[in-house]
Amino acid sequence: MTMAAMTKDRIGALCTIGPAAAFMVGIVGIPLFYILYVSFNGPHFSPSAYVMLLSSRLFFQSLWSTFETSILATVLSVLLGYPVAVHLARQPARRRALMMIMVLMPFWTSVLVKSYAFTIILGRRGIINTALSCVVGHKVALPLLFNKFSVVIGMANYLVPFVVFPVLASLLAIDPALGRAATLMGARPMRVFRQITLPLSLPGVIAGASSTFIISLGFFVVPALLGGRHDVMLANLVDFYTRETLDWPAAAAIGMCLLAVIGMCGFIATTLRKVRRV
Amino acid sequence: MNTAFTDKPACRIRYLTTGLACAVYGFLLVPTVIVMLISFGLIAGPSQGGGMHPTLRLYAEFLSSSAWMTSVWHSVFIACASMILSLGIGIPATYGLERFAFRGQNMIRGMLMTPLAVPSIIISLGIYFYFSAIGLINSFAGLVLAHTVYVTPYVIMTLAAGMRKIDPQLEFAAQLMGAGRQRVFWRVMLPQIRPSIIAGGLFALLMSFDEVVIAWFISGVQTETLPVRMYSSIQWEISPLIAVASTLLSAVSFFACLVASRVSPADGGDTV
Amino acid sequence: MLQSKAVLNGVNRRNFCLGGMSVLSAPFISRRSFARSGGELVFVSWGGSYHNAVLKGLVEPFMAETGIHVTMVDTPDLAKVKAQILSGNVEWDLFDSPGPLAATGSREGYWEALDTSRLPLSELSVQPTHDLAPFFLTAGGIAYDPKEFPEGRHPRNFEEYFDVRRFPGLRTLRNRVSETLEVALLADGVAPDQLYPLDVARGFRMLDTIKPSIIKWVEATTQTITLLQAGEADFSYSYASRVQTARASGGVSIDFSFGQTLNFLEYLSILKGAPHREEAMQFIAFALRADRQAETMNLLVNRPVNEKAMGMLSQKVLPWMPDINPGKNALVNDAWWAENYAPLERRFKEWTLS
């Protein structure tokens, strides 16, 4: 490319991308730095918020809870998403596109709608407990709501599609001839699954699981609506210090920690994927 | 190989996965269905007696509740404004990313996608501090600006997919015949990517319409959106009207899902 | 630090950023200020039946009489008041809060001074302070479903409310330290007249014992009733007024134990820098008038502060009035809370999360 064309391109790029870039810097970039700024106590620089967090049992408890809940939700989502991906992969293309709606629909459904539905399903006099009471014949009131169980269920409900899509993609990339060849050579279906389907779909599972896990770490609405007060995750703690105690430096410091945790996990996930590819 | 020998376990596995998959479909869809049934009075919601009579009573109540309807209009207004603004900055940006070569292209692309990589709670917190400082908190302007950056990555992704599909030779030909870059953009590019613009715009509309975390942080009494009202209502009062609001949101999502499956049917390719 | 400075400069030079933004946002901003200029009073009050009672008894007559439009917002929250005053963006005008919150706000300087000369001082049983107008007296206590828990199977006083062994079941408490700490200390056997100064450590020890049985730390007062109705809680720390109005709405099996109550005053106050101070003052004067107090309290079922209104209450609500005679019942000490609320509130909220 000639020098003139390069310059022209640069000007063109500036004019076209400039406004969007300005928006991103102005409304995401500056606020992100602003969190850092507030976390060090604004104009009066002091690391006191971070020092406070180091000695806060509440912070470490919810840090642990964030990991625990995210891991549980990820495992459950993979367990639920995998059979769906296998099932979809087996359908003829046209039918699959139609059945995809059953995954896309929940994918697009607001997390508020789902959370509300789960308060009705899991409540003490909710649908499950009422049904069980009818079956058993006396009043059943299993504690299903406002605890870790309901949080994990609600999160998995939201996250399953994030597992289905990548796993489906990797399943569809498997050459069907491989399976056929194995069957012809006498492999039982279970063995075909274990030695061909599963290992070849593993990259999809890893991609799905890692993105699910990372999304889980930042969850806010589900633990707030379906969890008890001691099931708070870091995102809820951010909200708590912003709004209920108005300790903005603490909220900002927790936000920075959450961002660091997510960044670290994201970094590990991408390196893992790269290593596998090499 | 004896076919009867292999077929039996094959069938069993087939049935097993189909069964499991159907159970998961149920798990994914049942919550929404239940909410809809409640909204039509077919199931009794929490803290309501009776039930089982199909009725539109809750809908009438919803439509006549000024508090709920105000929040609906706020959401509609904010979603429309964010859509227009995000298309306004997203279309040229995508064009620039796809059709110009310059240094740092990937970095810029990555930067435009930051709202996807950073969890909403962090973005919300930053915007909350920043908007408090510059007096944009509790304002429609603030909500529209925040939602615009939140939806722009989706708009750009949709548009980029559309632009990659069209043949650059056409633009090249137009340029050879003497059309300037702007003319090529308006006359050649835009008409071809119209479906992507519509899809991207609809995504923007819907994503803004059911966005809750950012709005929860920066909206106030005068600017409360429907999702924020729902969020506090679920948390605090469990009004049966939430079922109506939920059905409304689900209808909107269903629409989004139809659009999504038409634009990028996960490898089903033939529906477009 | 360098980065922070850069950000600081960016913010200081916000005129630059705002220049661009204001062009984009001009239509919305003007729309907003237009909406606010029409004499619109924002009144932060409580949700559910309380909302309806205040709407019927006060807000609607006020709008009819003065032509000032009132927007009602649920669930007063002192943290939000602080946030609004700190950011200089005051949205709320009139604040309806129980004594400890009101007194704390007063100590922090969150309220505008009142023009007390416009209030019917001679008729009031409790005198207003320079920035707080008493609204009514209410009684907190134990609510339960008499169908599920007939006489003898539900707690009648706070000691029994904390006795999970004798009265198994899930309970609620408020998500604020005031009231909750008093209830805990009364449950531990502290005499109502020796409650203050509160023995904080003892209170928290007592709360530790009941924590596993608390299904929800209630934010919005309506939930003290709805959680019972939805069956999420077996017993609830609620208010006589709420229980009576729930019963009056019909078809609800719910009752309130007058065996022991925690009484407290509710106040009205005006936010510092509120956009509609004058309208808010007009509203307070209106709310303390005998006829308004009577009509509102007939719906709200609390004890009016205007003594003349006592005589105008209907026979139906009289038995539900808080019992102000000393005995088993305690009265919340607002002055003590003004000094102690802020640090204890934080400690309490962190405690509920852990």
UniProtKB/TrEMBL annotation, chain B:
<keyword id="KW-0812">Transmembrane</keyword>
<feature type="transmembrane region" description="Helical">
    <location>
        <begin position="238"/>
        <end position="260"/>
    </location>
</feature>
<dbReference type="InterPro" id="IPR035906">
    <property type="entry name" value="MetI-like_sf"/>
</dbReference>
<feature type="transmembrane region" description="Helical">
    <location>
        <begin position="112"/>
        <end position="131"/>
    </location>
</feature>
<dbReference type="GO" id="GO:0005886">
    <property type="term" value="C:plasma membrane"/>
</dbReference>
<dbReference type="InterPro" id="IPR000515">
    <property type="entry name" value="MetI-like"/>
</dbReference>
<keyword id="KW-0997">Cell inner membrane</keyword>
<keyword id="KW-0472">Membrane</keyword>
<feature type="transmembrane region" description="Helical">
    <location>
        <begin position="72"/>
        <end position="91"/>
    </location>
</feature>
<feature type="domain" description="ABC transmembrane type-1">
    <location>
        <begin position="72"/>
        <end position="260"/>
    </location>
</feature>
<dbReference type="GO" id="GO:0055085">
    <property type="term" value="P:transmembrane transport"/>
</dbReference>
<keyword id="KW-1003">Cell membrane</keyword>
<keyword id="KW-0813">Transport</keyword>
<keyword id="KW-1133">Transmembrane helix</keyword>
<feature type="transmembrane region" description="Helical">
    <location>
        <begin position="197"/>
        <end position="218"/>
    </location>
</feature>
<dbReference type="Pfam" id="PF00528">
    <property type="entry name" value="BPD_transp_1"/>
</dbReference>
<feature type="transmembrane region" description="Helical">
    <location>
        <begin position="137"/>
        <end position="156"/>
    </location>
</feature>
<comment type="similarity">
    <text>Belongs to the binding-protein-dependent transport system permease family.</text>
</comment>
<feature type="transmembrane region" description="Helical">
    <location>
        <begin position="20"/>
        <end position="44"/>
    </location>
</feature>
<protein>
    <submittedName>
        <fullName>Spermidine/putrescine ABC transporter permease</fullName>
    </submittedName>
</protein>
UniProtKB/TrEMBL annotation, chain C:
<comment type="similarity">
    <text>Belongs to the bacterial solute-binding protein 1 family.</text>
</comment>
<keyword id="KW-0574">Periplasm</keyword>
<protein>
    <submittedName>
        <fullName>Spermidine/putrescine ABC transporter substrate-binding protein</fullName>
    </submittedName>
</protein>
<dbReference type="GO" id="GO:0030288">
    <property type="term" value="C:outer membrane-bounded periplasmic space"/>
</dbReference>
<dbReference type="Pfam" id="PF13416">
    <property type="entry name" value="SBP_bac_8"/>
</dbReference>
<dbReference type="GO" id="GO:0030976">
    <property type="term" value="F:thiamine pyrophosphate binding"/>
</dbReference>
<keyword id="KW-0813">Transport</keyword>
<dbReference type="GO" id="GO:0030975">
    <property type="term" value="F:thiamine binding"/>
</dbReference>
<dbReference type="GO" id="GO:0015888">
    <property type="term" value="P:thiamine transport"/>
</dbReference>
<keyword id="KW-0732">Signal</keyword>
<dbReference type="InterPro" id="IPR006059">
    <property type="entry name" value="SBP"/>
</dbReference>
